[in-house]
Each structure stands twice: as C-alpha cells, then as structure tokens.
Amino acid sequence: MKSVDKNSIFLFLLPTFVFILFFSLIPTLIAFIVSLFKINFFEPSKFVGLKNFIRLFSDKYFYQALINSLIYLSVTPIITLISLSLALILKEMNSNERLFKTIFFIPVVTPIVIAGIIWRYIFNEDNGLLNYLMLSFFNQKIHWLSSYPENVISVMILTIWRGFGYYLIIFYAGLLSISKEVNEAAILDGAGFFRRLFQIIIPQIKPTITLVFVLSGSAAIKLFTELYILIPGAPLSHKTLVYYLYYQSFERFDLSYGSTLGIVVFLLTISFSYLNIKLIEKER
Predict the structure, then answer these.
(1) pLDDT over 70, % of the chain
(2) Angle between helices 150-176 and 75-92 (to 10 degrees)
(3) Are 65 and 243 in contact (CB under 8 A)?
(4) Average pLDDT for residues 1-16, to the nearest whole number?
(5) Alpha-carbon span 239 to 242, nearest angstrom
(6) Which of 161, 206, 229, 261 has a CA 20 to 30 Å removed from the CA of 236?
(7) What is the pLDDT of residue 104?
(8) How many angstroms separate the CA atoms of 34 and 239, rounded?
(9) What is the rounded CA–CA span in Å between residue 162 and residue 58?
(10) Could you give all domains of the chain from N- to C-terminal order, each with its CATH number?
C-alpha cells in the first residue's frame, strides 16, 4: 500500500483510537491506581498496596455478588436461542418480515427506566398481571420482586425482553450472508430443516454467534440499571458485582474498594469474551 493510503487509514481510525484511549484505557488505568489507595470523602488518602484486593477474599457480599453475576450469564444462551430462532422464522417469511422486525425491535429502543416501571407493574405481587394469571390458573402467587431467586429470574426476564430484538437483527444480517446456492442444493438433496440448520446454517454464522455471545455476556456481567429499577430494595446478597460496586463507591463512598470491584468486573468481562472467541477459533 502507498504511504498516502496508510496515512488516510490512520486519519480515519484516529477518532476511534482517541475515544478508546480517553474513555476506556485511561479510566481503567486510573481505576487500578485508585484501587491501590484508601480513598473516601471523609479521610485523608493513603497508599495501601494490594489490601483492597486481599479484602475481596473475606467479603461475603463479594462472593454472593460474583455468584449472582455468573447466574445472570445464563441469559446469554437463552437470549441467543430466542434471537436465532426468531431470525430463522423471519428469514423464511415471504411477507410482513419488516413489520415483525419493527415490533421485535421496539423493546430495544424503549428507555430502560420506562421498561423497568412497566415490568414492575407486571411483576407486582399484589395486583400485577403475572400473579393475576397465576391465581386464575394455579390458585397461587409468586413473590417476583421480594424473594430470592424469583427476583433474579424477574430481572433476567426483563433483560431478555429488552435485548432479544437487538440480537435478532444481528442474526438476521448473518443469515442473509449464507450462500443461497448451498442451501438450495441441500434442499434438492433431501436435507431437512434441522439437518440444514446444524450442518449448513450454524457453521456459516459461527462468527455471528460469537459476536452475540460476547455482546450479551458482557452486558449480563455489567448488569446494573435493571436491578436498580426493578428490585431497588433487595438485599445486597441478591445483587450483582456492578451493583455492589455502585453501593461501595456512591453509598458508602469507598472509592478505592469500588475501583477494586471495577477491576474484577473488567477482568471477568475480558475473560468471558476471550474464552468465547478461543472456543470458536478452536472449532474452526
């Protein structure tokens, strides 16, 4: 490539590099530095080394928050399966697929605060829609927002409802890239739907599946807003790492320990993404 072409490429990539530098790399470095100090709004700051990281091992709420964050990761295969299934159905439709794509995408563009309030009414334990149906058909109600693990399941339902439309569009775009000739040849050879699904479709959209797993998994690990709106009064033992980070940083004003928790969330997200990418590369 000519030098002028390389310079042009660098010029177009420069805004992205600047954005990543100032909004990702530098904040991560600052968070690590802060985690090495004891910092809050009421005492002088002092260097404590790795004491904040050592503190994690004796913090029972950290272990419970970590377990809850890993439980929320089960949203990833569920939302992937739902999104892929609906994308396959839409691709086979001869008409109205644009209408259904619009309908499925509405939860994605619905503000999370509004979505959370709507689902709080649905999950309401006294007069909510779900418990009305449970009483009508099974003569019992469920404590969707006050009991564990029912409240965890409630937040997972909200997460799935709000996110599946986004990943559906990604899968739909991936399905459009599959060679029509290969699919038609398989049909002529007598291959059924499930045989084509597992031997033709899924192998060709593995990069798309990896992308959805990484995006949805990262979002599940960093879950916060849904918890804050749906179950704000739940005990800390019912919350995730990011909510515990918020609690330590902005309710107890322990910024150094909050930064330590942020480093753990960062490492967990990177590890999950790296594992997914490596598994797909190994299969390929």
Answers:
(1) 95
(2) 40
(3) yes
(4) 73
(5) 8
(6) 161
(7) 93
(8) 24
(9) 36
(10) 73-239 (1.10.3720.10)
pTM for this prediction = 0.85
Size of the chain in residues: 284
Q: Which long-range contacts (CB under 8 A, 24 or more apart) does 113-118 make?
A: 113/225, 113/229, 115/158, 115/161, 115/162, 116/158, 116/225, 116/226, 116/229, 116/230, 117/229
Q: What is the pLDDT of residues 96-145, one digit of tens each?
A: 888 888 899 999 999 998 999 899 999 998 888 999 999 988 888 899 99
Diameter of the chain measured on Cα atoms? 76
Give the Cα separation of 200 and 203 in Å (integer).
Answer: 6
Phi, psi of 40 (to 5 degrees): -150, 180
Q: How far apart are CA 272 and CA 72, in angstroms?
A: 13
* Bridge partners, residue 47, by sequence: 37
Angstrom distance (rounded) from CA 221 to CA 68: 9
What confidence score (pLDDT) does residue 276 get? 78
Residue 198: both structure tokens together: 């597992």
SS3 38: strand
pLDDT of residue 1: 47
**Could you tell me which residue, 193 or 143, shows the higher pLDDT?**
143
